[in-house]
Amino acid sequence: MTVRELAEQLGAEVLVEGDLSREVKTGYAGDLLSWVMARLPESAVWMTVMGNLNAVAVCSLKDGACILLTEDAPLDENAKQRAEVEEIPVLRVTEGSYRTSLRVAALLGEMP
Fold this sequence. Notes:
A five-stranded mixed beta sheet has the order 1-5-4-3-2, sandwiched between helices. It is 40% helix and 18% strand. The chain is built from five helices and five strands. The longest helix has 11 residues, at 97-107. By secondary structure, the chain is an alpha/beta fold.
């Protein structure tokens, strides 16, 4: 599934287009940047409420597929500009990380 397809299936708002053709292989949910930096899988959709410059840096460093802001979390302007430069898609949904994670797992065929 591509980031574009994921966004459409979730009804997510696209805040930064980036590379919407990027393949999403799995998901990861977390808000503690140092924890995520050590564990974010490559090509994962990262569900978080962290819409700041450091989140974009972590996603870039770990080669994440995109950032998915949950709970209608804001994306600050510096982060938006950096995500555009790095071509990292940033999406947003109103649901919390728990429900969003369940939906993403189902869409990716990762539910038990």
